[in-house]
Write a structure and sequence with these properties.
There is one protein chain. This protein is an alpha/beta fold. The chain contains nine helices and 16 strands. The strands form four sheets. A five-stranded parallel sheet has the order 1-4-7-10-13. The chain is globular. The N and C termini lie far apart (69 Å).
């Protein structure tokens, strides 16, 4: 037997695999759908986010495919492009939504047009919220060299802005598209905010990496959150039986939540003007004006062959509170 005879017959293998995969497609599972364009186009949703950012921040994100004669001409072209693309994607999402199966194509088209028009009309309101978020970031971060730096470089403002856009679509009943939007922001920033989360004015995420904010979270005005914070469900063992229920906490006005804290449960309310320290784990409500901190852990310092030395007891240390953690 020659070396040539020992080589695998790829043509035969592919033919056998092809038949096996085609047979597998006949099981009629969700993953077996073969209809092209039956779901929104993720790439187009990403492009829509970029175009929407040019509306929200007109001097910071430019599309070089447009020839700008004047601002009115530019914004008119941009809004028409956004409306056309968004309308088509909403119609696709509605057709693929089990709750819309009884609607005719004409009814779905009209509903997509209505939602698109409503969303476009809300853009000035969204910009007002984003402007307050920008002020919160600048006022709350001494490392910020200017608001321009925050717009261009800060992941927290990016993720929050995408959430504000997606949240409007979510509230208008658009399936899937809002989640695609926030997951795109998640992939870019490491900040995971469900589009269902309701966020008040003057909101600031500092650093941001690893933050998770669940679907039924309600956040008030003037709230500041640091990296690694989880605002999540206490348990998801109920699975789909929990769908639509309040599973995530309520954070009232003027609350600061420091790095690594976890706040869980739909009945959990963090009262206004409270401060939640780093690494706190909270599953019950906190009264307004409360400072929650984790007791200092014992550290050991060992040098060479010397016996380990523990840090002084907390009461012998600096009397300053240990609830903060700022970078």
């Amino acid at each position: 037997m020659t070396e040539k005879d020992n080589k695998p017959n790829f043509a035969l293998m592919i033919q056998e695999l092809e038949e096996s995969i085609l047979a597998d497609y006949e099981k009629e599972r969700v993953i077996d759908r073969l209809e092209l364009f039956s779901q929104p186009d993720g790439r187009m949703i990403e492009e829509l986010i970029e175009k929407l950012f040019r509306v929200v921040f007109p001097g910071f994100f430019r599309d070089y495919t447009y020839r700008i004669y004047n601002l009115k001409n530019s914004i008119s072209n941009l809004l028409e492009d956004i409306a056309d693309r968004l309308n088509r994607q909403i119609a696709i999402a509605l057709r693929g939504n089990p709750g819309e199966e009884k609607l005719t194509d004409e009814e779905i088209s009209k509903e997509a047009e209505r939602i698109t028009a409503e969303f476009i009309s809300r853009l000035p309101e969204i910009r007002e919220y984003v402007d307050m978020d920008l002020s919160a970031a600048y006022d709350g971060d001494p490392a910020a060299a200017g608001k321009e730096e925050i717009i261009i470089a800060y992941p927290g403002l990016y993720a929050t802005t995408v959430n504000r856009l997606a949240h409007v679509l979510y509230k208008l009943g658009v399936p899937l598209i809002p989640r695609i939007m926030t997951e795109y922001a998640h992939s870019r920033t490491g900040i995971d905010i469900h589009p269902g989360a309701s966020i008040g004015r003057y909101f600031f995420i500092d650093h941001g990496t690893g933050i998770v904010i669940g679907e039924t979270t309600v956040i008030g005005d003037n709230v500041k959150i640091y990296q690694g914070v989880t605002i999540g469900a206490l348990s998801t063992r109920g699975g789909q039986r929990l769908h639509g229920l309040k599973r995530h906490p309520t954070i009232e006005d003027n609350v600061t939540i420091y790095a690594g804290a976890s706040i869980l449960g739909g009945d959990t309310v963090i009262g206004h003007d409270s401060i939640i320290g780093s690494n706190a784990f909270i599953t019950r409500s906190v009264e307004p004006g409360t400072r929650v901190s984790v007791r200092n852990q014992e550290l050991q310092f060992k040098s060479g062959s010397a016996a380990p030395q523990t840090q002084p007891e907390p009461e012998k240390q600096d009397k300053a509170p240990a609830w903060f953690y700022v970078i």
